Amino acid sequence: MLTRPISEKDDKAIAQIIRDNLKAYKLDIQGTAYFDECLDHLSSYYLKDASGSFYYILEDDDGRVIGGAGIAEIDYFDQCAELQKLYLADSAKGRGLGCKLMRLIEDKALEIGYKRIYLETHSNLEEALHLYEKMGYREIERPRQVVHATMDRFYIKEICK
Question: For a Cys staple, 119 with which of 9, 44, 83, 92, CB 3.0–4.6 Å?
Answer without folding.
Answer: 83
